[in-house]
Design brief:
The chain has about 250 residues and is mainly α. The protein has eight helices and no strands. The protein has helices at about 55-60, 80-90, 100-110, 125-140, 150-165, 175-195, 195-200, 240-245. The longest helix has 20 residues, at about 125-140. About 25% of the residues are buried. This is Gluconate 2-dehydrogenase.
């Protein structure tokens, strides 16, 4: 594990300006986090489940149930979907938050964002086009059999180009690429950060109803500023502040 007292895990303070593998974080000692690493190794949000009302507890605990088979995406689309979710979230080993299943469930049930860009197709069509386009890019530009079959460094390069709106030709011509990135990432991040394992990773205390919050100091501040159920983080620096100082 890296020395968490040093800020060299922040991209702008590293020579290559690339983030290190998240394994620099400490091993999780209580509860479960993605890949069993996190900034709050002694925090388990599920230990506070008794403070939630019955309806909230039922909804949250249901997210821990083993996911069923995909209902929206086809067998041919599934590998690309999973590779995309794993790559953008840096989930390269178990345990993983089942984001692919979350995305699939929302699309299958029509639980969309409630709005649609004027120059974009329906979100369900956007996802199918993006997966097809990712496979085309992996094959055309990098000689891989598919996006899912490509090497991790190749998938990351394609994702980087996707995030910057730099992909074109083929199926990409049917999309506003930057907006397609926004559509896919909103649903991907929503699925990830709605899961209790992700809450453990970031030290989030979970639902506040009906318990509420007594203090607003944050989990990395002094003990007097933390809620009784919060634990101290493994590193105290404010990553946003350190990142901004590194850019000066």
């Amino acid at each position: 594990m890296a020395d968490t007292s040093l800020p060299d895990h922040l991209p702008n303070l590293r020579p290559d300006r690339q983030p290190p593998h998240p394994s620099w974080l400490p091993k999780q000692r209580r509860g479960i986090t993605p890949q069993m690493i996190g900034r709050y190794p002694d925090f388990d949000v599920l230990e506070t489940a008794d403070s939630w009302d019955d309806a909230t507890r039922k909804v949250v605990l249901a997210r821990l149930e083993a996911p069923g088979p995909l209902r929206f995406f086809t067998d041919d689309e599934e590998p690309c979907l999973r590779a995309f979710c794993d790559t953008v979230l840096a989930q390269d080993r178990e345990p993983k938050v089942p984001v692919a299943e979350s995305v699939d469930s929302k699309l299958a049930d029509g639980r969309l964002d409630g709005y649609q860009y004027a120059d974009m197709p329906d979100d369900r069509d956007t996802w199918r086009l993006v997966l097809r386009a990712l496979d085309e890019t992996a094959e055309r530009r990098y000689g891989a059999a598919s996006f899912a079959a490509a090497e991790p460094v190749t998938r990351e390069a394609i994702i980087d180009q996707f995030s910057k709106g730099q992909l074109e030709d083929g199926t990409w011509e049917r999309l506003n690429v930057k907006r397609a990135w926004s559509v896919c990432m909103r649903m991907t991040l929503s699925g990830f950060y709605s899961h209790p394992w992700a809450w453990n990773e970031i030290g989030f205390g979970g639902p506040a109803y009906p318990r509420g919050f007594m203090r607003l100091g944050g989990a990395t501040g002094p003990a007097s500023a933390r809620e009784p159920f919060e634990t101290r983080g493994a590193t105290d620096e404010d990553p946003v502040q350190v990142e901004q100082e590194g850019e000066v």
